[in-house]
Specification:
The chain is mainly alpha-helical. The protein is built from 4 helices and no strands.
């Protein structure tokens, strides 16, 4: 998998919150936190774009599955599927 590098400036308070997520063991490192936040932002932008066919939970899980394939690097698809639970 090819990864692009982006350099960003983050307010100190926000970075402290990122550090807490890593320190608490929720993420392996800061990059994982930021990648997950970007995935969530992109997923949130998809709200309302999924056609309602009667099983919205299945539709959202299918969308997450497609996103995980598109963005690669998602270690645990089940973890992504639990985000909306």
């Amino acid at each position: 998998m090819t990864m692009a590098v982006a350099q960003v400036r983050v307010p100190e308070g926000l970075m402290k919150e990122v550090d807490k997520l890593v320190d608490n063991g929720l993420y392996t490192n800061k990059s994982d936190v930021i990648r997950d936040a970007l995935r969530k932002l992109i997923l949130d932008k998809q709200i309302g774009t999924v056609p309602h066919t009667g099983d919205s939970v299945k539709e959202i899980r299918d969308l997450r599955k497609r996103l995980s394939k598109k963005f690669k690097g998602v270690e645990d698809l089940e973890e992504i599927n639990r985000l909306g639970d």
